[in-house]
Design a protein that fits this description.
Blueprint (H helix, E strand, L loop, with lengths): L2 E3 L5 E5 L2 E4 H22 L9 H27 L1 H6 L14 H18 L4 H32 L14 E3 L10 H23 L8 H17 L19 H27 L1
Parallel strand pairs: 1-4
Antiparallel strand pairs: 2-3
């Protein structure tokens, strides 16, 4: 028996007639919570890198731009390139939806590199400090991921495939066939569970002393969770399955992400062993 639900308005409230959407609030909450968690981590005695208030503010600005620009360009390039080539102005219409985690991750990596370079780091110091910043981001990133997926569910977007599972959801007034609530699956695994894993790895192991290891592990675990959740998620209509045996674009990108993460972990462990 499917779960019947009334649709949730994507607009949380209005300010002087201007609608404020749950999706925007999810991004804002993710950045704010992530900022204060990052502030706590860099203030600890065991912090691998120290940042003062101005550096934290500058880093937050870089990350916000990296997530938004990278996430949008990732969606444009990976998911709907032909449409945006025909309608280039739509690239800037982010309120119409369309963000890519994989693109956002690339944006965060670029933001970290540029931020560290602005601190006058070059050569090996640039690489090591960039990895240290990415390790910190690996701990806070799942918070934004989880909130974003909850907002996806509220918007009734990126929903799952048709199912006869008792977990299937039917929105009143919408198509009368149950679908997997795949955004909630992703919110659970890529948000809550991934945050717990990264938090424990940061606090209960010595991995934070291996610059880049936590960032690489995040990529690997996220990729596994995303590949699994894509088994329940309906592929984007404009792409569909990219192979006859059911591979999706999200799974293909996640395979590449897993390999990237594994490479970073191997590099980090090797560099650490060379310095002992």
């Amino acid at each position: 028996m499917a779960i019947m639900m009334n649709p949730i308005s994507p607009v949380a409230f209005s300010v002087f007639g201007v609608p404020v959407r749950w999706y925007a609030l999810a991004y804002i909450a993710g950045f704010v919570i992530g900022f204060y968690l990052l502030k706590y981590l860099v203030s600890r005695r065991d912090a691998q890198i120290k940042l003062d208030k101005k550096q934290l503010d500058d880093f937050l600005t870089a990350i916000v731009l990296g997530v938004i620009i990278g996430g949008r360009l990732g969606y444009v390039l990976f998911y709907n390139f032909s449409f945006f080539i025909a309608h280039p102005l739509e690239i800037f219409a982010v309120w119409h939806g369309g963000m890519s985690f994989h693109g956002g991750l690339l944006g965060v990596i670029v933001a970290c590199i540029l931020f560290v370079r602005a601190q006058k780091c070059n050569g090996m110091a640039l690489v090591q400090n960039t990895f240290k910043m990415l390790d910190l981001m690996a701990v806070v990133t799942p918070i934004g991921l989880g909130l974003g997926r909850i907002a996806n569910f509220i918007n009734m977007e990126v929903m799952g495939r048709v199912t006869d599972s008792p977990l299937g959801v039917i929105f009143v007034g919408g198509p009368q066939f149950p679908r997997h609530p795949s955004p909630l699956y992703e919110a659970t695994l890529e948000g809550f569970v991934l945050f717990i894993i990264m938090w424990l790895l940061y606090n209960k192991t010595k991995l934070k002393t291996y610059s880049g290891a936590l960032g690489g592990i995040l990529c690997m675990i996220y990729a596994v969770f995303r590949i699994f959740c894509e088994q329940f998620r309906q592929p984007d209509a404009q792409i569909g399955f990219i192979t006859s045996w059911g591979l999706t674009m999200g799974q293909l990108l996640s395979v590449g992400l897993f390999l990237l993460g594994a490479g970073v972990v191997c590099f980090s462990l090797r560099k650490k062993s060379e310095t002992i």
